[in-house]
């Protein structure tokens, strides 16, 4: 608990306070995933000349709101001026976009770059900053991930961050189409930018 993940928290809360709140908001497996994403984000930041502590913090909190109840999400979408179309989606999409509300409220993090990276971490977007890409890719390749193609994804992403984004989007689209899932328009727009040769 005392291990410092990030020097600056971009919040009035200390690093330990953020870690405690994060831990209380999810199960052990998800918490370990967030630690994995944090460490991977730090590594990708170093490779791509980005602030390592900031990337580690963004990676750590990216799934903070993953377990917020569906009814609470629906309430927040209606009351906090989120795009009403979000009501047609589910927690897979909400926990990034609407998750930013809970991160601001509970963790008191207001840095726009960090919030945007969380916002985009599931769907990606046509435009992505370095931090957006780092969190998006770290989520996919952290050491706890185990699926066919993950080794190739790691190789591609560590070699070139943009290619890592493209690989991940193509993989996600394949998975969604195979399961006949609805594609979020931003995911499709991102695929057209980052995956198409
Ligand atoms: O929160 P994690 O499990 O760590 O990972 P994530 O936030 O990248 O993805 C959560 C889920 O979101 C995953 O099962 C795939 C799904 N997803 C991503 N893009 C789309 C999507 N689901 C739908 N229906 N449409 C999308 O465009
Ligand atoms: Fe997520
Ligand atoms: Fe995640």
The ordered string of helix (H) and strand (E) elements is HHHHHHHHHHH
Query: Strand content of the residues, in percent?
Result: under 5%
Bound compounds: 2'-deoxyguanosine-5'-diphosphate, fe (iii) ion
- Work out the helix count: 11
Name the overall outline: globular
Gap between N and C termini: 45 Å
The low-pLDDT segments are none
Residues in helix, %: 55-70%
Q: Tell me the major beta sheet.
A: none
Instruction: Supply Rg.
Output: 16 Å
Number of strands: 0
Backbone structural class:
mainly alpha
Mean pLDDT: 96
Structural notes for this entry:
The chain is mainly α and 197 residues long. The chain is 63% helix and 0% strand. Helix 2 runs antiparallel to helix 3. The longest helix is centred in the N-terminal third of the chain and has 20 residues, at 28-47. The mean pLDDT is 96. The structure holds 2'-deoxyguanosine-5'-diphosphate (DGI) and fe (iii) ion (2 copies).
Layout of secondary structure:
Elements: H1 15-24, H2 28-47, H3 52-61, H4 70-79, H5 91-97, H6 99-107, H7 112-119, H8 130-141, H9 150-159, H10 161-178, H11 185-194
Summarize the structure.
By secondary structure, this protein is mainly α.
Keywords:
binds 2'-deoxyguanosine-5'-diphosphate, binds fe (iii) ion, globular, 197 residues, mainly alpha, single chain
